[in-house]
Batch of 3 targets.
Target 1
Amino acid sequence: MPELPEVETVARSLRPFLVGRVIAEVDVLWPRSLVDLDPETFASQVTGQTVVGVERRGKWIVLRFGGGGALLIHLRMSGQLILDSY
């Protein structure tokens, strides 16, 4: 499991790529990772959101959206986050 410095490094490296970008598409590969939402509802709520900030809160990466919402990401055991930018 990644420790705080690794999570901070991932958040800092994501910041220049994500801030100001609009989420065009969402694929939920592991539906059990969603709390109280089905994958279709989650995808519809996140798609079209503009990322206005990327930060670390504990071992969570927080993507802040222009509409006031946020997405919490945990790196789980692998410590990997795959960003597909096209």
Target 2
Amino acid sequence: MLYLSADIIFPVSGGPRRESVLVLTDEGVVEGIFTLEELQHKRHEIRFYKGMLCPGFVNTHCHLELSWAKGMIDEGKGLDSFVRQLESVRKTVPAEQVQQSIVRAASEMEGSGIVATADIANGAQTIPYKSSSANYFHTFIEVFGSDPAYAATINERALGLKQEFESRLPVGRVSIVPHATYSLSEELFRLVAAEDTGTIKSIHHQENEDENHFFWDGSGPIALRRKAFNPHLPPYPGTGKRPMQSIARFFNPDQKLLLVHNTVSQPEDIAFVQRYFAQPYWCLCPNANLYIENRLPQPDYFRQQQCIITLGTDSLASNHQLSILSEMKTICTHFPNIPLAEVLQWATLNGARFLGLESTLGSFDAGKSPGVVLIENADIQQPGLLAESISTLLIPAQP
């Protein structure tokens, strides 16, 4: 048996525990959390850590295949500039460098405490790493294309890539998903939404105001990009509606759907999604939002409507590290009204629920094997995170 103690233990499914001990089997399965008094006879076996213990983190939005782009994209230039810069350098990187960057980034990510990841893929580059990793990955095969004439071809290509992943990875860990609200033709949206209706899906949503302008009247940088890639298509006329109001009809309302970024989402956008979908999840990637747009979503908008919030890192093209702790620190710094215990739930149990792993990950409930993370250099009194706080995976998860 393992007996772990710290200044504070965050079970996530309950309040913070002080002067307590987390007891696990040698395989990492939680037996329970007990007081020091209850385990007085085991005092010599208890390992004490200065800091906080919490379950392993869940990263619900990552682009591991873009790890080669670290430091290559200018900060603060906006999403349109980000997309154009990424496209200009994407094909210049040797395959060996791509693989090395994936291994390095994933190893750092997992070492910092991430035990499960929902990862976007546009190609097969991450298959070698995922097929050998003990960590849990769900891969979203991402599709986009505004020309309806190519919808069937794009969908077939995605199905082929999905089969390639499934031939090397456990069953049920791959889904085909739309890239964003604005980047698919109606024909392609219908094909993607109809595929694997029982699996989880994600979509980039309201990363900046360009998306709102595009759907309202067909104007702005997205419209210009669409024209540049598809000069033969007629201009998009707009719908006079908000993004999700414009495309939700393509989805089954019972679909478990993760909306990613939500940087400029307003209460009316959130209310519509909460009404339309039975299982909506909202992923915040604050560091990427600051990197690209120098702007943050408003967590209180989602909290006020009892949304299920999760956290993501996005990619090293738009972030300095793939660290859920770093995302938490950014939220706690800019929104100090939100308790650390709540942000920890976003980083652990809520993500596990989205991935369908809540029976094994996300909290220190008995019978789970969520992994154990140590957060050091934290504010133990408040409790809270500091700029110098770091996280380390002590015990691996068993998803």
Target 3
Amino acid sequence: MKTKQPTGIQSYLPILGWLSNYKSEWLRFDIIAALSVWALLVPQGIAYASIAGVPPQYGLYAALGALLGYALFGTAHQLITGPSATVAAVSASIIALLASAGSDDWIAYTAALAITAGLIYILLGVLKMGWLSNFLSRAVLEGFVFAFGIGLIIDQSHKILGVDKVEGSYFQVLIGTLQELPETSIPTLVVGGTALIVLLLMRRFLPKIPRALVVVIAAIAVSYLLDLESYGVSIVGEVPTGLPTVGLPAITSGSMLTLALGGLAVIFVGFSEALAAARESASKHNYEIDTSQEMTAQGVANSLSGLFGGFGVTGSLSKTTVADLAGMRSQITSLVTAFLILLTMLFLAGLFTTLPNAVLG
């Protein structure tokens, strides 16, 4: 028999329901799962910040807001919400209409887009519009995500080749990158290619090891010991430690329509992955989720990410799978992971200074 959904105030704040029924023997599983998710989430967050066009620390800000927001309001016990490559790519494509890459306005509008998507999410959830998910065509969504995957490869290829990034559409970037092939930095290509090969080999032969973290740590060590920057290999540079500044970003009122339409695009792409991951975990562990409440939870996660200065987030199938395989029992895993992310921001962020950008690519 499947577990029934909570009623009353617990239906709006599910943590009040599951936390009161929490079993002490679950804690060690949740902590182990949190360590596993943290090992995956830190390098992913930093890499996805690059895709979103913001400095690396903003990936950690986004992760912190996502984990806290979903843990409080989500109904899937095993779902992990955080930065997503696809949502980050959608965010960057929208913000390109409003600001120049690398500017303070870009960072502000990126955070504003996350907040806007969050507010729309929450509105849909409060209005019990979860039934809209029944009309999301799986084929269309998969095609959309596949297309963005190709776009991501094109967008990140300049980092692995060590050439200047070409601005414009994906087609323009592709043509420009191909034209710059004669300028390829061999040391950079070796670093990026080696990282890619190691990741693929570990995925094939050592799937349970946090390969992203292993490769990142190894790359940082090699970069520091061999001084790869002196060979022309671009590195991340300073990653500030400390807490994010919490508040609303400063934007112009004339951008609201673009942000609203962009927020719908973030929801269209993000909620499909979040809902698929939530439904899969609920089916596996024999309980039900509330689709409308899931919208609210994703809304709070995105809003908190934006208030912390981060970018759009969503429920992640890959991170959820990692957490589930590690024995995740409840959203305590998300709360512990958030604490680990906080410690990373305060004390460990500076360690990523010598990380080659080719590895992130």
